[in-house]
Design brief:
CATH architecture: 2-Layer Sandwich
Strand order of the largest sheet: 1-7-6-5-4-3-2
Radius of gyration: 20 Å
Strand content: 35-45%
Shape: elongated
Number of strands: 7
Number of domains: 1
Order of helices and strands: HEHEEEEEEH
CATH class: Alpha Beta
CATH topology: Alpha-D-Glucose-1,6-Bisphosphate, Chain A, domain 4
Distance between the termini: 73 Å
Largest sheet: 7 strands, antiparallel
Number of helices: 3
Structural class: alpha+beta
CATH superfamily: START domain
Amino acid sequence: MKLWQKILLVLGVLVLGLMIFVATRPSHFAISRSAEMSAPAAKIYPLVADFHEWPKWSPWEKKDLAMKKTYAGATTGVGQIYEWQGNKDVGKGRMTMLAAEPNRELRIKLEFLEPGPFTNDSRFTFVENGGKTTVFWRMEGESEGMMQKVFGLMMDAMVGPDFEAGLAAMKTAAEVH
């Protein structure tokens, strides 16, 4: 067997192995981060419950200062819609507020249109304890098809640092007196 044939054989085995590995992974993925903030939930919750407040802390706002944004539906809470279109770092998408329990939890339908399409569930949970609040940020969804499963395997590494940056900026915004 010639060298180039051996190289092709090894590459073929590696690709087949990767495809088998990806195919056996669960289709469900979840990313979660949390941060403790020295502020009551009543001060933090409005930063998330009103999409107009997201520029104060959202990590994606800083990735494209020229991002086009539109707001529709309710002014705050359930029914509000936020759409964006930006550079390759933020893509194009839509968020719809599905549920809001003041100072406790928010649930958002997150639709990535470009790149994508992907639809995920995003939740923010606020837990107060002794004058501080821990904010939990979670995103989860289903990866249908081989390419979405590959993307799902990389989601935590790709999005986790953005969640951490967003929670740090939210902490700064909430703790300003």
